[in-house]
Write a structure and sequence with these properties.
The protein has 2 helices and 2 strands. 5% of the residues are buried.
């Protein structure tokens, strides 16, 4: 049960980070700095890593998690201006309970 909650929490945190990153990045820029201003609008760059728990305890939720990852990626791709997206998917295969020394 802990693993399922951890997987869901990690997925939700990833979604929140992806959705709020552009706003945080815009606040950190100084609009008065002429070196930062550009006449041509730049494409925003989004770096995102999705972590999908594929251990046996998550077997019932894996398809839902895949669908949610696809939904988040599609939402990012449809943003305006169209961002340059750098995405990775990490699949976890080892159950922490099977490791006597921890991970």
């Amino acid at each position: 049960m802990k693993t399922k909650l951890f997987g869901i929490a990690l997925l939700m945190l990833t979604a929140v980070a992806v959705l709020y990153y552009p706003a945080l990045n815009a606040e950190s820029r100084d609009p008065g700095n002429s070196a930062e201003r550009h006449d041509v609008a730049e494409r925003p760059v989004v770096d995102v890593v999705f972590v999908l728990d594929t251990t046996g305890s998550m077997s019932e939720l894996i398809q839902t998690a895949k669908d949610k990852i696809w939904s988040i990626a599609s939402t990012m791709a449809s943003a305006q201006p169209t961002p340059e997206i750098k995405a990775e998917i990490v699949f976890t295969l080892l159950d922490a309970e099977l490791c006597p020394d921890g991970l």
